[in-house]
Amino acid sequence: MRHLFTILTSALLLGASTLPTHAQTPAPPAQTPTTPPAQTTTATPPPANANIVVEKPTYVSIVMEVNVDKPAADVWKRVGGYCAIGEWFQMANGCKILAGTDNEVGAVRSIANEVLVGKTELSYTYTQPVRPDRPYTLYHGTLEARPVTATTSKLIYTLMYDNSTLPDDAAREKDKASRTATFTRALNNMKTLAEGGTLPPR
Q: Top-level CATH class of 54-194?
């Protein structure tokens, strides 16, 4: 009996010593999940010069005229050159053609870089170009010498532009009055020159 107990004890000890070692290795500690770094987003800048587009334009026109005691062809010959504006607008620096051919469609004059966009025998139309970071008002001007009789004519100046960029009706009326006064003076200067007179210094 004692001999049997010794055999059983030895067997138990032998079995314990032959267990796989991995069964005795403690499990590694659980890893704490890491929070991924926050992603930063950069706002997409608006397209360049996006603010030049006017969403709801309101186009207006101003038509001014003056009678001239000269035939239309003679009047146009005297004051109808594309850079003649330097004289009858009495520009301190005069007027120069910056690009293109004088009096031809596509010519650019130094007055606000205005571009000649249309012409007839006795008229021309110009526009002001788009400018960076400034609402585009589609400003156009037309100057015309129109025959009235064989010996008389009239000069007609028409402006067209978008005035929606002005803050209110009072500002729009003030702007219209200012433009009318400025270009009426120019028409009277053209009349003086076309009829053979000279302009007083400004």
A: alpha beta
CA distance 122 to 74: 10
Each residue's pLDDT tens digit, 107-159 = 999 999 999 999 999 999 999 999 988 899 999 999 999 999 999 999 999 99
What are the structural domain ranges in the chain?
54-194
pLDDT at 28 over 70: no
Tokens 């397209």, located at residue: 47
List strands edge to edge, sheet with 140-147.
59-68, 153-162, 140-147, 123-127, 115-120, 108-109, 97-99
With contact defined as beta carbons under 8 Å apart, do 74 and 82 qualify? no
**Burial group, residue 75, by CB count within 10 angstroms (0-12, 13-18, 19+):** buried
Model pTM score: 0.74
